[in-house]
Amino acid sequence: MSAFQTYFVDTFKHRYIDFKGRASRSEFWYFNLFTTLIYMVLYIPIMVSLFSSIETGAPPGTLITVLSGLLSLFGLAIFLPSLGLIARRLHDINKSAWNYLFILIPLIGFILLIVWFATDSQPGTNKWGPNPWGVGVDDAADLLVEE
């Protein structure tokens, strides 16, 4: 199974608006990677077509309209799954989803959230559920001492 199927399609299909539970770092970052790549695939032709119409003086074509509509629909479709994934990622490091509101603090909130999103999962079970990797506190300790 490909990473796209595992981290994007399955997250989108099976956990569409799931704000409960936990999400691993890899699920979070791969989902965001594939979301960014899809945005780029839709956005780059819009910009190329727009710049070429500006150079020629011709009105923007239907390609810009169609791709802009697809870009908007994708943005709407991805909004709730992204919020759910952010909530589950914050739960994974034992933080409330309300901590996402730190994004409202210019620059500092963004940096704080990036650090939290990059933080490793809390081992074992927390109040939001078991570790997404299935590693408990005892398992993590065993992994550290194994040779």
How would you characterize this protein structure?
The chain has 147 residues and is mainly α. The protein has one domain. Helix content is 65%, strand content 0%. The protein is built from 5 helices and no strands. The protein has helices at residues 3-14, 25-56, 62-92, 108-118, 137-145. The longest helix has 32 residues, at 25-56. The chain is elongated. The two termini are 30 Å apart.
Label the structural class. Answer: mainly alpha
The total domain count is: 1
Report the β-strand fraction as a percent range.
under 5%
Total helical segments: 5
Q: Which residues sit in consecutive blocks of at least 5 with pLDDT less than 50?
A: 137-144
Shape: elongated
Overall pLDDT score: 85
Major pleated sheet: none
Helix percent reads: 55-70%
Based on CA atoms alone, the radius of gyration comes out at: 20 Å
Question: N- to C-terminal separation?
Answer: 30 Å
Beta-strand segment tally: 0
Order of secondary-structure elements: HHHHH
In short:
This protein has helices at residues 3-14, 25-56, 62-92, 108-118, 137-145.
Give a quick set of tags describing it.
single chain, 147 residues, mainly alpha, 5 helices, 65% helix
